[in-house]
Amino acid sequence: ITTDNTIVELREIFGRWGLPLTLVSDNGAQLTSHEFTTFLKSNGIVHLRTAPGHPATNGAAENAVKTTKHALSAALADSKNKNIPKSVILSKFLLGYRNAPHSTTGESPSMLMLGRKLRCRLDLLYKSDEEVVREKQERSIQNYNGSKNKVFKEGDEVMIKYYKPGSKESWVRSKIKKVLGTKRYECVSKDDKTYIRHVDQIINATIKEIETQTHETVSGAVSVTD
């Protein structure tokens, strides 16, 4: 492994994750060269090298390698995994390892690095936050007769809210005459009076809850036309 190859690999890592504050390494020739030292300094990275012949100086990395080797050895020794590629076994282990809280930090590597937990197959047993929020929103819309999914077309029989000064608001049986937008409709009552209504002021004429409030015609209503 040359210095140039090492720098190429580090550039790819830095491009994905950003520049680290510190880089800890051993004393390999490619890591102590003038070119490598210049590369780190130009990027504002402090280079810490382990003591020669004492790899425990970089204990965190050594422990991670030790844990990974032990897990791979155990997985490869299991007859159930004999037909599974080593790369797949390694990937599955790393996903679990990066999601597991560390004994020193109390946080998982993914949480410290990404600020979030990595999604895994265990999450299939639970609803995601997005699903929970969406279900609550849909229930709210159903409970309060929201307009999210209400869409009418020309000719639909509907009930529209009717407002008359000094009178309690009521519902008037009408028909959709024209679609004015995603939320606005031009409606015509049975006595040929025209009204502009928002979708929140319109319900399907088949809804039984408002049948007792139905007025086939409304006398003295002020019509609104284009």
Task: Tell me what the structure shows.
The structure is a single chain. This protein has 226 residues and is α/β, with parallel strands linked by helices. It folds into 2 domains: 120 residues, Nucleotidyltransferase, domain 5 (2-Layer Sandwich), CATH 3.30.420.10; 66 residues, SH3 type barrels. It contains 7 helices and 8 strands; from the N terminus they run αβααβααααββββββ. The strands form 2 sheets. Strands 3, 4, 5, 6, 7 and 8 form a 6-stranded mixed beta sheet that branches. The chain has a two-stranded parallel ribbon with strand order 1-2. α4 crosses α5. The C terminus is likely disordered. This is Integrase catalytic domain-containing protein. One of its GO terms (molecular function) is nucleic acid binding. It comes from Schizaphis graminum.
Beta-sheet strand percentage?
15-25%
Distance between the termini: 78 Å
- Based on secondary structure, the structural category is alpha/beta
At the fourth level of CATH, the homologous superfamily of the largest domain is Ribonuclease H-like superfamily/Ribonuclease H
Number of domains: 2
The largest β sheet comes out as: 6 strands, mixed
- Compute the gyration radius: what is it? 34 Å
Task: Give the CATH level 1 class of the largest domain.
Answer: Alpha Beta
CATH topology title of the largest domain: Nucleotidyltransferase, domain 5
The low-pLDDT segments are 212-226
What's the total helix number?
A: 7
- At CATH's second level, what is the architecture of the largest domain? 2-Layer Sandwich
Mean pLDDT: 83
Total count of strands: 8
Order of helices and strands: HEHHEHHHHEEEEEE
Shape: elongated
